[in-house]
């Protein structure tokens, strides 16, 4: 694994004050921070950096009195958070993050935690915490996100901040959009993708007069590529375009697909919003994305990169089969008693400096990691 000189955890569960959580005072049960992770990253107007951190707030004892419990925002109850009990005999609780309910004839999940978003202000280099803005937290506000708001990504386009989030509910598993002029006070714009799509990332700039975004629709069925193809079937990173960032149309050309020669791309998805820059002697849209190698329940998550054509972003100018970033067990040694998954780095934000990129990732679904990656570390695999 490539070692980077600046690579550290900047926020862990121990740094979060749950007495200031949106859930505080709502539940007759003890909660704890399962993870403070998967941070969006952007530059504030004052020059500092902002992480929008996913806080997964979990029940200390989800299983009691023969039931496993889920946290839910209840609009009918006056906008409160409540607990739903599910009989334990109908639930598979092997995964500590969620449980599967049996007897439906298809896959149905519920969560032992509920996620909300917390703005954390950092110094310009991303290495020192300046402030945690609990008063600016984003929590569920409708039935379409009653099980949480997850995995924000922030793009700055024409002076306006655009933040995509994943909203979770029994109604749908949708992508929701928030906008802001200064990245601290956010306005909810609504649902922009009405299907299960975990990784919608808006390009940091227009192409022509259109907004572009990476998407990653999921499904239970994928059709095979022909024998000998360089690709293999599975989720892929697609593109969509929009005149206004609200109404999106899928682009017809395929984009980044799982490569048959790389085990860790058995499942892929977007990581950082594409930024227009120059690496490996070429100018294009740099995008960092994750690839997953199957292992146990979660798998091994690694970060890869691709450089996309400036005008035709479905064309890949350069990429690398070896990973750019991998999970770092050394970083999480002080958090060993809180670990519940391993081998996971999930990169979610990037800011460009003169000779390096400041990259934000979720480490082990537990903490926020900042890595300074030199521009000369982007070495493409020969075609």
UniProtKB/TrEMBL annotation:
Residue ranges crossing the lipid bilayer per the database entry: none
Molecular-function GO terms, alphabetical: hydrolase activity, acting on glycosyl bonds
Keyword Glycosyltransferase (UniProt): yes
Keyword Electron transport among record annotations: no
Keyword entries, A-Z: Glycosidase, Glycosyltransferase, Hydrolase, Transferase
Family: Belongs to the glycosyl hydrolase 130 family.
PANTHER family, A to Z: GLYCOSIDASE
Stated name of the protein: Glycosidase
Source organism of this protein record: Tsuneonella deserti
High-level lineage: Bacteria, Pseudomonadati, Pseudomonadota, Alphaproteobacteria, Sphingomonadales
């Amino acid at each position: 694994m490539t070692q980077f000189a600046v690579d550290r955890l900047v926020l862990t569960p121990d740094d979060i004050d749950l007495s200031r959580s949106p859930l505080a005072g709502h539940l007759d049960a003890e909660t704890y921070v399962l993870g403070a992770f998967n941070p969006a990253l952007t530059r504030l107007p004052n020059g500092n950096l902002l992480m929008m951190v996913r806080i997964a707030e979990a029940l200390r004892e989800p299983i009691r009195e023969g039931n496993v419990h889920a946290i839910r925002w209840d609009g009918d109850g006056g906008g409160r958070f409540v607990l739903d009990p599910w009989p334990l005999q109908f639930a598979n609780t092997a995964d500590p993050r969620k449980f599967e309910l049996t007897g439906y004839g298809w896959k149905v999940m519920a969560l032992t935690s509920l996620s909300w978003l917390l703005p954390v202000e950092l110094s310009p280099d991303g290495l020192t915490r300046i402030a945690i803005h609990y008063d600016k937290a984003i929590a569920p506000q409708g039935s379409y996100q009653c099980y949480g708001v997850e995995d924000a990504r922030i793009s700055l386009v024409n002076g306006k901040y655009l933040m995509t989030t994943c909203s979770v509910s029994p109604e749908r598993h949708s992508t929701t959009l928030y906008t802001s002029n200064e990245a601290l006070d956010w306005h909810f714009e609504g649902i922009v993708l009405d299907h299960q799509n975990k990784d919608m990332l808006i390009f940091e700039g227009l192409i022509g007069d259109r907004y572009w975004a990476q998407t990653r629709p999921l499904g239970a069925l994928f059709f095979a590529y022909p024998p000998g193809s360089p690709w293999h079937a599975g989720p892929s990173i697609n593109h969509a375009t929009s005149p206004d960032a609200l109404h999106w149309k899928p682009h017809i050309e395929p984009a980044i697909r799982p490569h048959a020669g790389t085990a860790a791309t058995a499942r892929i998805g977007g990581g950082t919003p594409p930024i227009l820059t120059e690496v490996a002697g070429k100018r294009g849209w740099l995008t960092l994305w994750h690839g997953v190698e199957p292992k146990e329940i979660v798998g091994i998550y690694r970060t890869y990169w691709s450089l996309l054509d400036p005008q035709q972003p479905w064309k890949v100018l350069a990429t690398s089969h070896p990973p750019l970033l991998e999970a770092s067990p050394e970083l999480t040694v002080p958090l060993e008693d809180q670990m519940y998954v391993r081998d996971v780095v999930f990169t979610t934000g990037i800011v460009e400096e003169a000779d390096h990129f400041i990259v934000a990732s979720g480490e082990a679904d537990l903490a926020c990691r900042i890595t300074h990656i030199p521009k000369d570390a982007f070495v493409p695999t020969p075609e």
